[in-house]
UniProtKB/TrEMBL annotation, chain A:
Residues 234-302 form the ChlI/MoxR AAA lid domain. Pfam families: AAA_3, AAA_lid_2. Residues 40-170 form the ATPase AAA-3 domain. This is MoxR-like ATPase. One of its GO terms (molecular function) is ATP binding. InterPro entries: ATPase_AAA-3, CbbQ/NirQ/NorQ/GpvN, ChlI/MoxR_AAA_lid, P-loop_NTPase. It comes from the Bacteria.
TrEMBL record, chain B:
Pfam families: TgpA_N, Transglut_core. GO terms for molecular function: peptidase activity. Signal peptide: none annotated. The chain crosses the membrane at residues 23-44, 51-69, 75-96, 103-120, 126-150, 162-185. GO terms for biological process: proteolysis. This is Transglutaminase-like enzyme, putative cysteine protease. Gene3D superfamilies: 3.10.620.30. The lineage of its organism: Bacteria, Pseudomonadati, Thermodesulfobacteriota, Desulfuromonadia, Desulfuromonadales. Coiled coil: none annotated. Residues 397-468 form the Transglutaminase-like domain.
Length: 313, 653
């Protein structure tokens, strides 16, 4: 049995990873998961590894509107949401939409924006609407924010607080390409120009329908729900963890696991889907105890995952 | 440096010898020969490193011995063939190679043989052998665990000393525990808690003397006196005879042993056979149905007045069979004067009453007159608010007019004796509840009763129950006789009865006969009787419920078994003891790259993770996959089975 649109979605991933974004299959896949699960993705990596290319390529191939915000410390909330401008001829204020009114928004170096701006943007992400001067404007569907931040830079940044991090469905890095591939990329030159001419393979409506299909038809049984619950429960009692996974974290994990199961070609979620997706979905939500600040959250969570038995009967 | 292997062999031989020692006098020569042969063959084999008796041969010989055992054994002759079989098996094991498995069998056989020897002999030596056996076997088992890990393990002398010291702690601890469990506990007849909280000794029930007026109130105890397995009897026949009291001293009726013969005139139409299960009691009188003819299964002494003294252990349950005739009469042979004996202090009104009765012409008329007096006095049967006086009989008859059976019986008998009618008291029990389910009468201590036996004009003793002359006799005695018991209570009591009969008393004969009667019933099912189905119907839900429960549990567990089988196969393929718990089925399938594993995961996961049941067809297919995987001799790279680490790897891609 072939699931609705799965072939096309896999083709998108295949095309992107083989033609345009070599060696980034995992990041692409996670971006698709997050698009299908209705969440947002935070890419944490140093500049120059293709975060922007990823966003551009996705918007191109999925035929989505693309908006871009380059964060700086003087960026104002209205620079993202848009603002009202006075129209002299009609002698009235006219709302000029900001870059957030696009299907796919790339928020570059999100940790450079000041907290006020960050918070305005993240709120819009969560609520999927913007209220300016008393008027509420809905954001277009599908809506995916790809935010990036550079973990190495510390001067002049405002690191996202944990409560804001919790709003991202997925946090992941991109990583360096393997040496062979990197050599090829160097040899061939940037693909940025090709990305402009990329042919769309899927439409907006199809994406909306697919994510609705996943939400309604991919079943998450009792065993897997138990498994997810055990996972978040144990994260709360872990000796290295100060504050474990929230209920929203559990919800996000379930939604992402559904999308993952769909990509795997199943209409039911298995514990392996949860395992597969858990680290990018959940690790950034953990708050470690002060004495374990130097430990990587991913590793803590990885060890937790390895402890919990998979339910089988 | 001494190797573990050598020590283990020595321990095994020693344990075998200790097991056999108490049996030696009972074994036939040829079995002894076999055992010696086994020792010699084994020892030589140990030396040379190869054994004359190969494993297959040993199995064959063991089977042959077993067939011999089956041909010899019968219910009558079970113990000897069984012990000989055990010795033969031991001989075979001694002669074969000493692999860990065989060593374990040797220890086990030695222990069983020692246990079996208790069927033939149980003297003090047994305790000694038991202690030795425990020491040797526990030490052997620990050594065996070393041996299994590394057969060539060797220890230096100080290491041995240290090891032995620690090893001896183990059996020493278990010996103390055993002492409590096996020496102290079986010797106690009552549960240990009762021993710590001793019960009050004064109890209600039948006693070997009757003294009306000694207590002001009779409390009800609710304790069980005895149970009687028999057919259902006429209600008037339910007088359970215990003791005959023939001598009156002051106010107290006692039993005086005299050799006065009585002859029972039997009426075989009323003969019944009963089996009585008596609860522990303080006196030695065996209760029977009035009147007993013969008694069996217990050492006893029967008197001609129908009183039976058993030679019993104190505070032990006892069961015996009784043949009794409830309508028979007994004729007094010889003098009757001592049945007329009375003390010589009586008040005037007593003597006047006795005088009046004595004027009647014969025994029957005198008894009739006395009955009329009792009825006329409007006496009431009561166990509470009894007057305590110097002269309870007189107070009862003329003043308070309240009392229980002892008052009625003793005043009746006194007056009869004063009027010249030979009379005596009989103590025992009255009535009982018939348990339809178990087919037995349950008689409580509350049913204890005293009645009168008086002589009639033909010289026969006749039973007279003066308590029936009370104005409220119907109600008062009815409660004793056949209180309506609910079915549930009857069922619970029947269970209890059978438990103490079959299990606590541990009556082998009874158990065998139970099996026989069951087999008989199964055979008789062939003669199909539709009416019997109705009887069975009520038991059906009782059986069905647990059966369904077990069925569903089994169904649930079979999936768990399936998964653990599957994981076992995969773990073997990866040369691991156990797969990591966090490794799911689909992850396993991906890692193994085996299509069968993928099919298993999809088939199983589609059902279980979808929240639906695995169908029978799917279950069979899953089993088939496991079978095929076993045949496949799959091998999986262990390094790959680090399940979630590859997340890291693919991150970098």
């Amino acid at each position: 049995m072939e699931l609705y649109q799965r072939k096309q979605i896999l083709e998108v991933i295949e095309t992107l990873s083989s033609k345009y974004l070599q060696g980034k299959v995992r990041a692409i896949r996670l971006a698709i998961v997050s698009l299908l699960a209705g969440g947002h993705i935070l890419l944490e990596d140093i500049p120059g590894l293709g975060k922007t290319s990823l966003a551009l390529a996705l918007s191109g191939i999925l035929d989505l509107d693309f908006g871009r915000v380059q964060c700086t410390s003087d960026l104002l909330p209205s620079d993202i949401t848009g603002l009202s401008v006075f129209d002299r001829q009609k002698s009235e204020f006219k709302f000029v939409k900001g870059p957030i009114f696009n299907n796919l928004v790339l928020v570059d170096e999100v940790n450079r924006a000041m907290p006020k701006t960050q918070s305005a943007m993240l709120e819009a992400m969560e609520e999927r609407r913007v209220t300016v001067e008393g008027v509420t404007y809905g954001l277009p569907e599908p809506f995916l924010v790809i935010a990036t931040q550079n973990p190495a830079e510390q001067v002049g940044t405002f690191p996202l607080p944990e409560s804001q991090l919790d709003r991202f469905l997925i946090t992941t890095g991109i990583g360096y390409p393997p040496p062979e591939l990197e050599k090829q990329i160097i040899q061939r030159g940037s693909v940025r120009d090709e990305l402009e001419t990329i042919k769309p393979l899927l439409g907006r409506d199809k994406i909306i329908e697919t994510s609705r299909f996943i939400r309604d038809n991919v079943k998450l049984g009792d065993l897997v729900a138990d498994y997810i619950h055990t996972l978040i429960e144990r994260s709360r009692n872990h000796p290295q963890v100060f504050s474990g996974i929230s209920t929203r974290g559990g919800l996000s994990l379930a939604a992402a696991a559904r999308a993952e199961a769909y990509l795997e070609g199943r209409d039911y979620v298995v514990p392996e889907d949860v395992q597969q997706i858990a680290v990018p979905v959940v690790a950034h939500r953990l708050i470690l105890r002060p004495e374990f600040q130097t430990v990587r959250k991913e590793e803590v969570f990885q060890s937790l995952l390895a402890e919990i038995p998979v339910p089988m009967a | 440096m001494v190797g573990v292997e050598a020590i283990l062999r020595i321990l095994a031989y020693l344990a075998s010898v200790v097991g056999l020692l108490p049996l030696l006098p009972y074994l036939p020569v040829w079995v002894l020969g076999l055992l010696v042969g086994g020792f010699v063959l084994g020892w030589v084999g140990d030396r040379r490193g190869n054994y004359l008796l190969s494993n297959h041969l040993a199995t064959g010989v063991s089977i042959a011995f077993f067939i011999w055992f089956v041909s010899q054994a019968s219910i009558a002759n079970l113990v000897h063939p069984l012990i000989e079989l055990l010795c033969q098996l031991l001989a075979v094991r001694l002669a074969t190679e000493k692999s860990p498995r065989h060593l374990l069998q040797l220890f086990l056989l030695a222990t069983i043989i020692l246990a079996a020897s208790s069927m033939l002999t149980l003297d003090l030596g047994y305790l000694f052998y038991l202690v030795l056996n425990i020491l040797l076997v526990t030490t052997g088992l620990v050594m065996l665990s070393f041996y299994v890990t590394d057969p060539h393990l060797r220890f230096t002398r100080p290491q041995w000393r240290l090891l032995l010291k620690t090893l001896l702690l183990l059996p020493a601890g278990s010996l103390v525990l055993m002492l409590v469990l096996f020496v102290v506990l079986p010797r106690t007849q009552t549960p240990l808690w009762n021993f710590l909280n001793p019960q009050p000794t004064g109890r209600i029930g039948m006693s070997d003397q009757v003294q009306p007026g000694s207590v002001a109130e009779l409390a009800e105890s609710g304790e069980i006196a005895f149970r009687v397995e028999t057919e259902q009897l006429p209600i008037d026949a339910l007088y359970w005879r215990g003791i005959v009291l023939n001598r009156l001293e002051g106010n107290i009726w006692r039993r005086e042993l005299r050799n006065i013969e009585e002859k029972l005139v039997s009426k075989s139409s009323s003969q019944v056979e009963l089996t009585i299960y008596s609860e522990p009691k303080a006196d030695h009188y065996l209760v029977t149905l009035d009147r007993p003819i013969r008694i069996a299964d217990v050492r006893h002494e029967i008197k001609s007045d129908g009183v039976i003294r058993g030679r019993l252990r104190r505070d032990g349950k006892v069961s015996y069979r009784v043949w009794a005739q409830y309508n028979s009469k007994s004729r007094q042979l010889g003098d009757t004067w001592h049945y007329l004996q009375v003390p010589n202090r009586f008040s005037d009104r007593m003597l006047q009453l006795a005088e009046e009765i004595a004027q009647q012409k014969n025994y029957a008329a005198k008894i009739d007159r006395l009955d009329r007096f009792f009825l006329q006095q409007q006496l009431s049967y009561s166990t509470t608010k009894l007057a305590k006086t110097e002269n309870p009989v007189e107070t009862f008859l003329f003043d308070s007019r309240r009392g229980y059976c002892e008052y009625f019986a003793s005043s009746y008998a006194v007056l009869l004796r004063l009027a010249g009618v030979p009379a005596r008291l009989v103590g025992g029990y009255l009535g009982g509840e018939f348990n339809q389910l178990g087919g037995y009468y349950l008689v409580g201590e509350d049913a204890a009763h005293v009645w009168v036996e008086a002589m009639d004009d033909d010289g026969f003793w006749q039973r007279i129950d003066p308590s029936r002359l009370a104005v409220n006799a119907e109600e008062a005695l009815a409660t004793n006789r056949s209180g309506n018991v609910s079915t549930l209570q009857a069922f619970a009591d029947a269970l209890k009865h059978n438990w103490s009969r079959m299990v606590l008393n541990y009556d082998l004969r009874q158990q065998i006969s139970a099996v026989r009667s069951f087999v008989g019933q199964v055979r008789s099912v062939k003669k199909f009787d539709p009416a019997s189905l109705g009887k069975l119907a009520w038991g059906l839900p009782l059986l069905l419920l647990p059966a369904t429960w077990f069925f569903f549990r089994y169904r649930q567990q079979r999936l768990q078994r399936l998964i653990s089988d599957y994981r076992h196969v995969i773990a073997q393929a990866a040369a691991l003891d156990k797969l990591p718990d966090s490794l799911g089925l689909f992850a396993l399938a991906d890692l193994s790259g085996e299509p069968l594993c993928r099919e298993f995961a999809q088939l199983y996961g589609a059902a279980v993770y979808n929240g639906r049941r695995v169908t029978e067809a799917e279950y069979q297919r899953l089993k088939e996959i496991i079978r095929q995987l076993k045949k496949l001799q799959l091998s999986i790279d262990v390094a790959k089975l680090c399940p979630l680490g590859n997340n890291e790897a693919s991150r970098i891609l």
